Amino acid sequence: MVLATIQGTETDRPRVQGGQTAIPCWFMRGGTSRGPFFRSDDLPEDQASRDAVLLAALGSPDPRQIDGLGGAVPLTSKAGIVSVSDRDDADLEFRFAQLQPDSNIVDLTPNCGNMLAAVVPFALEAGLITARGDTTTARVLTLNTGLVAEITVPTPDGGAGRYVEYTGAACIDGVPGTAAPIAINFLDTAGSVCSSLLPTGNVRDRVDVAGIGAVEVTCIDNGQPLVIIAAAALGRTGYESTAALNEDQELKSRLEVLRLACGELMGLGDVTARNYPKMTLVSPPAQGGAINTRSFIPHVCHDSIGVLAAVTAATACVIEGTVAHGLAKVDSGTDIRVSVEHPAGEFSIELGLDPGNPQHVIKSALLRTARLIMAGDVFVPRRALHSSAITAAVPLEEKQ
Fold first, then answer.
1. β-bridge partners, 347
2. Could you tell me the maximum CA-CA distance found in the chain, to the nearest angstrom?
3. Are 315 and 351 in contact (CB under 8 A)?
4. Per-residue pLDDT tens over the stretch 243-278
5. What is 205-355's CATH superfamily?
6. Fewer CB within 10 A of the end CB, N or C, for the chain?
């Protein structure tokens, strides 16, 4: 282990009050997403009970998520679960949970690079690890897909001990203002969910779907399974606003038919109930970047673009023959900066390519920001829990 750990105390145990159970919770923004973070030990061990807690905490299923912490859109219907790792190659283990406002499904299969940006700040705040020096670096294993990322956050000495610094000059499009930079270096992202970087074995596939016709796509997974399509191939410019695309029911219906077909091609089986592959429309850059994107996640157009979707789209830009490569403006070489344009601005990715195999990405580095918004307890109705959930809970009056 690289970092020392701090053991929880007796007062960390959940409490019962008014028919509800209080669970320690840190509400955090990570990149352009946000949601509650939990220590793994504070949640039930069995998945059904844990899912019930997360659904109740977020307020799903309900389109407004009025009875929970969710923000009524997929980008704010997320949760993180973190624990100390006992592996030699990781300090922390991160389980990402994607919820939906109107669904009772808790999806533990995808990654979220935005929420990943908040993992190390959360772990420091929650006492899972201790700071070391003016910056603290930890390796995080994402349990959903096995991806490992090295994450560095600023932890200056404030006189009374080190703390996580959230203020700074870093700016990411899609988040107002500036904040302290968080550096993320993905160590191995190819084939995070699929069998390989190019799961169909091709840089470009021609998919013939009833009602749509033949459409050329690139199926790729460098941290996030994506289906990349030229916007023009579907009769769109790719520069439409997020609101316009979300109202475009014809386009969304066609994308879903394509998504289901490509899911099978990518070896993912029936993806009807899954949040991947994401569908990404690409077009030539309009603001001096490398490529312009509109990313569907998978049924709603993203206000910007997800971290790992940006990494994967950037990767497609540098691989000759892909749909994106034919539209992108990128430099040659083995160390390439790719600026991915999206509805809220741009997202820059630093890619390192294997000189002997240009389809092998050996480095994906980027900057994000995060912020602690709230820390305390989230109260969950006990009726939402299975009988095995949170057996360690004790009455509130016994805690005082």
1. 340
2. 67
3. yes
4. 999 999 999 999 999 999 999 999 999 999 898 999
5. Diaminopimelate Epimerase; Chain A, domain 1 (3.10.310.10)
6. C
| Residue showing tokens 């624990």 | 83
| pLDDT tens digits for range 311-358 | 999 999 999 999 999 999 998 888 898 999 999 999 999 998 888 887
- Answer whether residue 215 shows pLDDT above 90: yes
* Residue 366, pLDDT score: 92
| Region for 376 from its dihedrals, namely left if φ exceeds 0, alpha if ψ lies in -120 to 50, beta otherwise | left
User: Distance between CA atoms of 213 and 164, rounded to whole angstroms?
Assistant: 53
The CATH fold assigned to 10-181+370-399 is Diaminopimelate Epimerase; Chain A, domain 1 (3.10.310)
CB neighbours of residue 134 within 10 Å: 11
DSSP 8-state assignment for residue 35: E
User: Measured between alpha carbons, how far is 400 from 390 in angstroms, rounded to an integer?
Assistant: 19
Return the pLDDT at 386. Answer: 53
Are 349 and 366 a contacting pair, CB within 8 Å?
yes
The string of pLDDT tens digits covering residues 1-52 is 444 343 444 445 557 778 899 999 999 999 999 999 999 999 999 999 999 9
The CA distance from 196 to 119, in Å, is 26
Could you give the residue ranges of the DSSP H alpha helices within 42-198?
Answer: 47-58, 113-116, 119-125
From its phi and psi, is residue 161 left (phi > 0), alpha (psi between -120 and 50) or beta?
A: left
The rounded distance, in Å, linking the Cα atoms of 231 and 237 is: 6
* SS3 label, residue 5: coil
- Residue extent(s) of CATH 3.10.310.10 domains in the chain: 10-181+370-399, 205-355
CB 120 within 8 A of CB 81: no
